[in-house]
């Protein structure tokens, strides 16, 4: 049974001067525990898809169902990590991280320990009492990631979560997030510009077209690669051929534009 | 090679020095101002009957404070100003919040607010006095009126300028509109609120002094008008000096509140 379904979803941004069609007829579905990546040129509507699934915007056409219920009515916890970190500058790190539980009136006292531990795991030790302005871009991004994870969502929407990180940290965090998601059997959608990251982390990769955004092609990641953690996945013999295929696909779309 | 600590120390020293220089200049200007005034008055560069002099003001103030008459005027004005300031500021914040809560209501109200804002509030003085009686109630109402509309406008537009992505983050956690307000919109407008506080200090003084001109019963505004009528310009100047001092103190207090808020608002 599918967990999340997008059924002929289109989205327009309206303004008084006209409209932009950001998405055109997007249909796909995810099973529970599945990990899907979205790849595509800038402006093809990846962030738009995530915002719709997160229930922040309503699509202008089509249906989005979560466990067969309309997404707007579903009370299921969704964790959305936006493209920019949007940490609240007037809250310190620990209060930022515990924002989700606070909104749900969950006791944050017990979660504090977990939060500090999780911060440590992403390589941020002893930052809990600092304020976001004193952190670097990569550090802030990791805080935003922890903020999303601690909320314990059933489905995770990650919009370029590792884009501001150095390569080493990025690989480590890919491992950590991959492990967490597998262990807790979470469903996730990852937006990325990094083909390697998409292959290493996901079960399926959706390559998108721009103007308007639509799904161009779907790549299944071979089971052998999936079984490896992201770092080792990159060394698997089947990794490179898939990488090349996706590269070609994206490259040909670049070519179309000219 | 200097050590890190030494570099930091010299940075601190530099800062202290800069602060001192600024302070010295500030004092210098103040003293020069009063000295020049005194000299100009004594040498008849300016008419001492019209512009008085610091020494006359000083003696006059001492006398009036000694017999207690000044203190009652001063406390009345201060009371009215502080109340007008508080009600105007809180009222403005409340109104802005109301407008923010009902988007359509705010759109409907927009032209009326613009007109109210453009209107010189002190021109309403006579009507207010007729409505509320010639007492401190009218004067407080003036202090309130002068600041409330502009506060509403400033804070409402600050609410609307808050980056919607903060609310997006909260909504993704399933926050209600009220929670978005509490966690994102309100704290993000804190800086605007604080700057509004400072502006309102000045505005409520305008409202209250004009109110006292009109009601003409007691208070520093009344003393100015009275001194003007009996040609006692030393009294006028004394009142002005007192107003300047009180306004400055009030401004400093607001600054203290600001510092406290910044520390504790988190
Ligand atoms: N708030 C908005 N108002 C109007 N148009 C918008 C808005 N947000 C996005 N768009 C338009 O919708 C299209 C898709 O935007 P979206 O942010 O989803 O792209 P994206 O795939 O996430 O791009 P990137 O990889 O650069 O993040 C773009 O053409 C963009 O101009
Ligand atoms: Mg995007």
TrEMBL record, chain B:
UniProt keyword Cell membrane, yes or no: yes
Gene3D superfamilies to which the protein is assigned, alphabetical: MetI-like
Membrane-spanning parts: 21-45, 78-100, 112-133, 139-159, 197-215, 235-254
Short name of any one Pfam family annotated for the protein: BPD_transp_1
Entry's localization field: Cell membrane
Boundaries of every ABC transmembrane type-1 domain copy: 70-254
Membrane topology qualifier: Multi-pass membrane protein
Keywords: Cell membrane, Membrane, Transmembrane, Transmembrane helix, Transport
Listed SUPFAM superfamilies: MetI-like (SSF161098)
PROSITE patterns given in the database record: ABC_TM1
PANTHER family per UniProt: ABC TRANSPORTER PERMEASE, ALKANE SULFONATE ABC TRANSPORTER-RELATED, MEMBRANE SUBUNIT
The family this protein is said to belong to: Belongs to the binding-protein-dependent transport system permease family.
Name this protein carries in UniProt: ABC transporter permease
Gene source species: Oceanobacillus caeni
